[in-house]
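CO-FOLDING WORKSHEET

Operator: S.A.
Ligand of interest: flavin-adenine dinucleotide
Run index: 383
Mode: holo prediction, single chain
Checklist:
[x] sequence pasted
[x] SMILES validated
[ ] output reviewed
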Amino acid sequence: MSDVIIVGGGISGVCAAWEMARAGLDVRLFEAGSLAAMASGRTQGGVRQSGRDPAELPLARAAVRRWQSLAAELGEDVEYRQGGNLRVARSDDEVPRIQAMVNEQRALGLELEYLDDRADLRALAPWLSEEVRAASFCPTDGQANPVRAVNAFARAAGSAGATIDLQEPVRAVHFEDGRVRGVVTRHGLVEAPWVVLAAGIHTPELLAPLGLHFPLEIHHVAVLQTVPVPHRMDQVFGTAAGDGSGRQQVDGRLRVTSGVQPWFLAGGSWSDDDVLPAAGTVAAVVERASRVIRDFDRVPLARVWGGLIDKTPDALPVLDAPRAVPGLVVAAGFSGHGFALGPVTGEILRDLCLGEEPDFDLAPFRLSRFNSAMASHDLELLG
Ligand SMILES: Cc1cc2nc3c(=O)[nH]c(=O)nc-3n(C[C@H](O)[C@H](O)[C@H](O)COP(=O)(O)OP(=O)(O)OC[C@H]3O[C@@H](n4cnc5c(N)ncnc54)[C@H](O)[C@@H]3O)c2cc1C
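OUTPUT RECEIVED:
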């Protein structure tokens, strides 16, 4: 019997496995496919504090501190680069949004500059197109290689004693005599007193049989990657309207995204082809990216893919051990910004399983916030 079973081999699951294994827990992680098969392998890979909800900002700031020393901690280069993040306004209408964001986040203590002088903008980021009118700049934001990061955390967890089972879908969480007792796989019951659900968009399916409602909406994002080009961008950018982002990877490829679009997922399973963006979406992303990155539309595209986002109604994640189901911990609903948080998500999940007080106020991340009936449901089950 393990101490903890983790469901999901994305950034949240592998970071939790690493934290728990190095804290001395016997950890087993089940991943339905391969590591980083879903959002964590398709993400932009921005490591950003700016633009975060005030509730999430302390987690993001702590995560950035961890990212700075991860290469040493994991013994691998995860291509973390702290080149800063620009949130750009492409029209005069978008400028007030940037100003408001800068004022709000500075008041919360984040180091953030506001730039509306074209010469200053071009001096900082010569790759910006002439259309960019203003931008916020957070010098401590950055980027990393998501697939490398997930694999590095998984290797570190394995070296610290965690067992990682790939191609092993969990069918259900096993609840008996008032608490979680493990999970059911195709091999039957695998026992553990704690189960962590970090299964991304598939988390609600595992919660529903336990009587827990998790109102996730699925959203789609298109990602375009070019051939490698000479170094031109240090910063990651996002648009004021949230309809695009971009960065240059360490290998020279430019990687840009669309905004999010609601998505209907028919049936439980899906393939890469099911989420490929339509040609019209690709053209729109190229057009929008070219309004921010000078001459983007001249660079050959090498790859296009789609990713799905687990969006909650308030765009904040659930990081919780719901009282209704003792032994259960939930980490999902990251709403498009969970990659950067991964190292801190791992710490929080470890603390929840050890019954220790996490370093953060987790009240905004409780599952019960979506269902006022759940508070009484908790009490009924406990009583
Ligand atoms: C295109 C795109 C761009 C993004 N950009 C950013 C960004 O710039 N910065 C940022 O911070 N975040 C970004 N995000 C969001 C970020 O990628 C996610 O929030 C994060 O990767 C979520 O990680 P996760 O481990 O919680 O979930 P996932 O990565 O979705 O992992 C869940 C895992 O659980 C497995 N699983 C599901 N069901 C089961 C089961 N029954 N049994 C076993 N395993 C199961 C899946 O196969 C999957 O591997 C982006 C997301 C996308 C799609």
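REVIEW:
The longest strand covers residues 217-228.
DSSP finds eleven helices and 20 strands in the chain.
[x] output reviewed
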